[in-house]
Specification:
Layout (H helix, E strand, L loop, with lengths): L25 H10 L4 H30 L1 H11 L2 H12 L3 H30 L5 E2 L2 H27 L7 H20 L30 H33 L3 H28 L2 H30 L9 H18 L3 E2 L2 H18 L4
Antiparallel strand pairs: 1-2
């Protein structure tokens, strides 16, 4: 958006920068509960909630280290560690054999970022600019939209090949290699440009806009950032393993299917920090452009980097992880990417579009909840 960001921000119940550090107390609490073999429902809830602040700490520590390393190495560090929570959670879920749930979490991350995350950011922007068109730099977002469309094809082709041929061969590994190659090339194009970027391009980083978070309240030294990054990553690994150990009894007791658990619970846990960052950019800085880039970039990264990485981790663990998604998952992704791309391509929107996106997310949720898979 191009409004004057110097005007006083509108706060929504003090949610511009929620402090979630108090949730870190759930890390030792969860470990004690797991050791005492407490009811799986409580272990799951505690471990799941603790993942949110741990993921946020990893992002903040990575950002601080990036400042020390400079723009090129710092950007590469962000690109490497930015999706650590999703990959760590997916790894331990694969160890438990929860392949369908992991694939559903990939679907859920894309749908959640494009519909729920974008919807919240657009509604937040509407609070500042009531009854006005919300304008943004559409040209700067076209790279993200193009990557999303390409990633969508990468998720469709393995299913089409499996459905339309009699071959027993499965091409997920080959498609994953191509998707990862595209991701690497986009990183190279971003951090090693052929020509210096102009001032008008300063707000666009092809793959890592979702890592441009607010400055930490206190400046961290490099050593402190390294200690926090290592500690938070280790704690995240422990809590992710606890969560995946308890997720099956939790789902069975509440009557949730693996697909529903993956699409909504696992996906939202892994992307909660990015969604809060996107809403914060709008509420505190009035930067809808940046919020849109955060959510679009996070979605394309799920398909271009996280999904292929989990396919190769599945091979390492001896699990049948692939890119063969259910018909409903594929249809949901196609409809979402197409709808969001068409709306954003106009360069302006009314705040009520946020309500439409959230309503679409809820309708898809009803379908996933009633899915027999």
């Amino acid at each position: 958006m191009h409004q004057d960001s110097s005007s006083a921000p509108v706060f929504l119940g003090g949610l511009t920068r929620p402090n979630l550090n108090w949730l870190l107390a759930l890390v030792p609490a969860g470990m004690v509960m797991d050791a005492m073999e407490v009811n799986a429902i409580y272990v799951f809830l505690v471990s799941a909630l603790s993942i949110i602040p741990l993921g946020k700490l990893i992002g903040e520590a990575t950002e601080v280290l990036s400042d020390y390393l400079g723009p090129t190495l710092g950007g590469l560090l962000n690109a490497t560690l930015g999706n650590a929570p999703e990959i760590i959670i997916g790894y331990f879920a694969l160890k438990q054999g929860l392949v369908d749930m992991v694939k559903a979490s990939i679907t859920g991350s894309i749908l959640g970022n494009l519909l729920f995350g974008l919807g919240l950011a657009i509604l937040a922007s509407g609070r500042r600019h009531r009854n006005q068109f919300l304008r943004y730099d559409n040209d700067a977002l076209q790279v993200h939209i193009g990557l999303l469309r390409l990633a969508m094809f990468g998720m469709i082709i393995p299913a089409v090949f499996d459905f339309s041929t009699d071959s027993e061969k499965e091409i997920s590994v080959e498609i994953s290699s191509v998707l990862l190659g595209i991701y690497v090339m986009s990183i190279v194009a971003t951090f090693f440009p052929d020509q210096p970027s102009s001032d008008s391009d300063d707000d666009l980083e092809i793959m890592r806009m979702d890592e441009v978070t607010e400055e930490p309240e206190a400046s961290w030294s490099r050593q402190k950032a390294l200690v926090i990054l290592a500690s938070a990553t280790i704690a995240l690994a422990f809590m992710s393993e606890m969560m995946t150990d308890s997720i099956t009894p939790f789902a069975s007791k509440l009557g949730f299917t693996p697909v529903f658990m993956g699409v909504f619970l696992m996906a939202l846990l892994g992307n909660a920090a990015e969604m809060m960052n996107a809403v914060g950019f709008v509420l505190k800085r009035d930067q809808l452009d940046l919020a849109l880039a955060v959510m679009l970039g996070a979605s394309s990264q799920m398909a271009l980097m996280v999904a292929p990485t989990l396919v190769f981790l599945g091979m390492y663990l001896g699990k049948s992880m692939n890119l063969l998604f259910s018909n409903y998952e594929l249809l949901a992704i196609i409809m979402t990417v197409t709808t969001v791309s068409d709306i954003i391509a106009k360069g302006r929107m009314k705040p009520k579009v946020g309500i439409i996106f959230i309503a679409l997310y809820m309708m898809l949720g009803i379908g996933f909840y009633n899915s027999p898979l």
